[in-house]
Amino acid sequence: MLTVRAPATSANLGSGFDVFGVALGTPADVVRVERAPETTISVTGAGSEYIPEDPEKNTVGAVAKALDAPARIRIDKGVRPSSGLGSSAASAAAAAVALNALYDRGRSREELVPIAAEGEALVSGEAHADNVAPSLLGGFTVVTDDGVTQVDASVPVVVCLPDISVSTRDARGVVPESATMDELVDTVGNAATLAVGMSRNDPDLVGTGMADTVVTPERTKLIDGYDRVREAALEAGATGVTVSGAGPGILAVCHRQNQRAIASAMVDAFDAAGVESRAYQTAVSQGATLYRDGS
Ligand code: HSE
């Protein structure tokens, strides 16, 4: 038996829509695999009641098929579905690493990115690699049509997850079809600032570079209480706040000493808006970890 822990991720980071992603220290999915004549899937943990166990309908089933690696697969969900934290991507990334090792397929982590993204296509209708890439590779990732660029980074963050769900399909439905030249220039500036910030582990540059006037404002309308949660996080010292992935999770970047205050400010602000939530105090961290024989 092989066990893989694959982390939650936060895609977009505001200015990097469909391009940027980071691996988070916590939460994570844990996937266990054993060779079997045909693939079976069982799911436990956060939101497992919403996840199909039919291999034809589960992201992990698509990964097993792509690697020609039938297995008994057990998924323990730490990353709630429809959270904006790359839930399906974490399972797909974990399965890709586990099945690649189980059947000695010899694929590199980079080569597993498009395979894990196949699973994502089942959920969102399109194969986005901006969650599977950081879950597989760790750190900060930049996904383009030409491939993935990765930087090890360790920037403190708080992710606040409200007890509401936003489907990726709905969140993609509100993405504007075009942007002005001014918005394009702003976005390039912000995205470049963010990328430099990641390479320097500089929360101030990263927070500043997350600003986005194109996609994020449309998506915040889908999250009850977003504006007051953002304000509360900034007042408590966050260097930048944005929607995590397709939402409803909210990502705040910060210096370590402000993390605890930001987490409670965000939860309190959601509470004031009548929404229950929980906050993860974590950091940009490493990618999927393989444990042999359950060790
Ligand atoms: N970049 C994607 C989005 C991530 O924001 O829609 C979710 O798949």
Bound molecules: L-homoserine
Tally of contiguous helical segments: 10
Reported for the largest beta sheet, the result is: 7 strands, mixed
Instruction: Report the CATH C-level class of the largest domain.
Output: Alpha Beta
Portion of residues in beta strands equals 25-35%
Radius of gyration from CA coordinates: 18 Å
Alpha-beta content class: alpha+beta
Mean pLDDT across all amino acids: 95
CATH architecture of the largest domain: 2-Layer Sandwich
Low-confidence stretches: none
End-to-end Cα distance, whole Å, is 10 Å
Q: In which range does the helix fraction lie?
A: 25-40%
- Please tell me what the overall shape is: globular
CATH topology of the largest domain: Ribosomal Protein S5, domain 2
Tell me the count of domains: 2
Order of SSEs, N→C? EEEHEHHHEEEHHHHHEEHEE
| SS elements, strand count | 11
Catalytic activity: L-homoserine + ATP = O-phospho-L-homoserine + ADP + H(+)
Family: Belongs to the GHMP kinase family. Homoserine kinase subfamily.
InterPro entries: GHMP_kinase_C_dom, GHMP_kinase_C_sf, GHMP_kinase_N_dom, Homoserine_kinase, Ribosomal_Su5_D2-typ_SF, Ribsml_uS5_D2-typ_fold_subgr
GO cellular component, one term: cytoplasm
